[in-house]
Amino acid sequence: MAEAQLHDFPSLFSLEGKVAVVTGGSRGLGLSAASALLQAGASKVFISSRKAAACDEACKTLNALPNLRPGARAISVPADGATLEGVRHLLSQVSAQTDHVDVLLANAGATWGEAFDTHPDAAFAKVMDLNVRGVFNLVREFAPLLQRSASAQDPSRVVITASVAGLGVGTLGTQGTYGYSASKAAVIHLGRNLAMELGPRGITVNSICPGFFPSKMSNGLLKLSGGADKLGKENPLRRLGQSEDIAGAVVYLTSRAGAYVNGEAIELDGGALWKRGQLDVKL
Fold first, then answer.
1. What is the model's pLDDT at position 3?
2. 2, 14, 119, 245: most buried, per Cβ within 10 A?
């Protein structure tokens, strides 16, 4: 039967020869995603963050991975994604080394925790600028490179790192992350709008929404919430997120396996958002 004749199933999750750009790729979830892209077969993965030394160190680690395709490499391209000038600088660095981009992972982000009554306007603005405005600028500026080799059958991919805080209520109280939660809800909706705008150009746009993954950004909040062990035991799967959980979702969305997924927001939190039938979001 025709339905059983899957086309080239062994390559379904392959990224053989693809070119990717990962913002916020020097550490945490971005570094896990970049590692997955390279190990799935990408030929070039550009690693960007504000600090050049951090990008260089991340690339050194990635390029030492044992199972990369011949010639595959991570390339350091430091830039400040919070400003339009920084995004355009990133574009110029990438354009100097490739004529197209297949995967754009908009992972750079910031948060700020403070009580409602003293929550600074400047902090709220900083978080919104990077987490929402910066993503819009990034996708708009990179759209020509994303379109270059895109097609309906093999679209280019944009993946936005959002958060479960954009799906429910985030952290309140003395370390309230009001700007962060609002920004993640906004960027999920932005992603859906961009999916409709860019789909006809052969570009899909999806968001991943992680819950608690131990990282530099979340470790302080983890400690305030009782620690990783406590929160892990409260999760329906009795653990927190791991690097492989991010890696699997990113490879799915950016490989042929995810070519027909567009405008989606995938929750990656072990089901904690819906625990006990109610919203129970910590990040």
1. 78
2. 245
Q: DSSP characters for the chain?
A: -GGG--TTGGGTT--TT-EEEEETTTSHHHHHHHHHHHHTT-SEEEEE-S-HHHHHHHHHHHHT-TTPPTT-EEEE----TTSHHHHHHHHHHHHTT-S--SEEEE---------GGG--HHHHHHHHIIIIIHHHHHHHHHHHHHHTT--SSS-EEEEEE--GGGTS----GGG--HHHHHHHHHHHHHHHHHHHHHGGGTEEEEEEEE----SHHHHHHHHHTT-HHHHHHHSTTSS---HHHHHHHHHHHHSGGGTT--S-EEEESTTGGGGGGS-----
Active site residues per annotation: 180
When pLDDT is averaged across residues 114-128 and rounded to a whole number, the result is 93
Q: Is residue 9 part of a domain?
A: no
What CATH number is associated with residue 173?
Answer: 3.40.50.720
**Residue 262 domain boundaries:** 15-272
Report the chain's mean pLDDT, rounded to a whole number. 91
Domains identified in the chain, total number: 1
Residue 6 in domain: no
- Which pLDDT belongs to residue 218? 56
Asked whether residue 277 is domain-assigned, the answer is no
